[in-house]
Each structure stands twice: as C-alpha cells, then as structure tokens.
Amino acid sequence: MASGRILLVGRNGQLGHELLRTLAPLGEVIALDRAALDLGDESAIRAALRRLRPSLVVNAAAYTAVDQAESQTDLAFAINARAPAVLAQEAAALGARLIHYSTDYVFAGDKPQGAYAETDPTGPINAYGRSKLAGEQAIAAVGGEHLILRTSWVYGAHGANFVKTVIRLARERETLSIVADQIGAPTSSRLIAEATAVLAMQLASRGDAVPGGIYHLQAAGETSWYEFAGHIVERLRAADAQSVRCREIVPILAAAYPTPARRPANSRLDCARIVLGFGLRLPHWRDDFGRHFAEILRG
Predict the structure, then answer these.
(1) Residues forming a β-bridge with 177
(2) Catalytic residue flag (residue 128)
(3) CA torsion 171→173→176→177, rounded to 10°?
(4) 211 — phi, psi (to 5°)?
(5) Closest residue by Cα to residue 102 from 217, 261, 8
(6) Which candidate in 128, 155, 215, 226 is catalytic?
(7) Rg (CA), the chain
(8) Per the confidence metrics, is the pTM higher than 0.85?
(9) What separation, in Å, do the N-terminal and C-terminal C-alpha atoms of the chain show?
(10) Structure confidence at residue 54 as a pLDDT band (50, 70, 90)
(11) How do 56-59 and 4-9 pair as beta strands?
(12) Which helix (H) or strand (E) holds 198?
C-alpha cells in the first residue's frame, strides 16, 4: 500500500542506504543527504518540508560519533535533538507522520538482569545518549503522529561499523583484544530498514489505529562484543581463510579500554511491544548476520 510522498533524511548513512531500497515500493521517495539538507540549519529544514509536503518523514540522520560527542556536544545536540524537534513540528503542521531512530544509549546500561523495556527509566551516561534522549523528548513534546525506534549495535554493508573494523583487524593482526563485559544484540541496518517499511505500510493502512510513541527494535538473542568478534572471524575464516592473520581473540574488560565516552554494559532491548503491535518477526542476531555477511565482505 502506498504511503504517498516519503521524505527520507540521511540517505547516505548505513541505515539511509538500506531505507532507499525498502521504502521505494511504498511511494515517491525523496531522499536528502547532508549536502541537500543541513540539519544544523533550522530554517532550511522548515523550508524543505514546506516545499516537499511529505505524508511521511523518515529521519535516518544522526550525529553518531559517540566519543567525539563528548567534545562536540553542541553539534551532537543540534543534529540529534534540535533538528528532530523541527522535523516533528513541521510534520505535525502538515499532518504527516514521523519515524525517527534512537538508541539504547538513552539508558544507563546498569540494569542487572534482563532487557530494557520502553517504560524503564532512562539515564544516559554520555553526551551522545543525552542528545538522543533530548531528541526523543522533543518529538514527544510536539505531539504529532510519530514512531521512535530505539535500536543498538547497528552494522551493515554500507558505512563504518564494528563488523568491518573486526574484518580489517583480523586481516592485519594476529591478536585482537575485544571488550567482553558489554552485552547486546547485533542488528543489521537492513533488518531495521525492512521493519521500517512494514511499519510505514501499517501506518498508511491502519492510520490512527497504530499506537504511536517509542518502540524497541533489535535482533533476537544476545552476545558480547568479544563473542560477536569471534563469530565474525569464524565466518571470515570460513569464507576466505588465507586472508586471516588473527590467531587469538582476547577478552578484556571495558575498564581496560578507556574511551572518552562511557558505554552501557547492558544494551539489551525488550522488543515485545513492536512484535505484538505490528506482527514483526525479529530473527536471531546470528541468522540476521548470516544473511548479510557475504555482501559485507564484497563491500
């Protein structure tokens, strides 16, 4: 079912790249990159939406440099908080719906057991997480029709990410040291984009019957960065053994690898609300990864 005119913001990111493909069957997609729409320019955002008059706005743009956000806080808040607020305001004025992406970093990551539900208290521990939470709050304050999709540990064939870094290092080094005390679920950008298309279709067909607000979207299962790296190297060795120099992966604590920004120890997200509300079937992270590994290698 067509969704009318769709405005995709952030077309060149790893998620935007996949959304171009999954949203195309739903309607006319107008995809803008940073050169076409400066999210630091409030007046430019307003002018673009008033000119294009979309029925659905999908905001895949974000400031995602977690460590740099500690020193570039103003820029992080401009892109992750103020720009989404303006998008939400203009979308509401047009009667358009907004789909926006957020992150597990809105939580402190210190929940001792289980996954975070949408109703759990937030408490970001770094500037990036605070900027994303401010974006969520700004969108909610506008009151228009919106879905905020929190996800985590995103990777894909396009753009820089953990998977590509591990592949490169496994070809360069004999030993890798990887953090073992942070837990989550690796989630492909394609899975997020495919789920977004399902949500967009249901928004178009069900209209006001779709409950808005925040939803968690993540592949099923859980792992650590250390275990995930092991799986990546195992798949790489099976596909191209001669290219692999890595002989050992050493588990380390996050405290032994200090970074400017602290990371959550628990990045698990409870996705029951989106599964029940939209009938989504979220694959296990290993199955999701297996679908895309060959394409990542080619990229």
Answers:
(1) 250
(2) yes
(3) -140
(4) -70, 130
(5) 217
(6) 128
(7) 19
(8) yes
(9) 32
(10) very high
(11) parallel
(12) helix 189-206
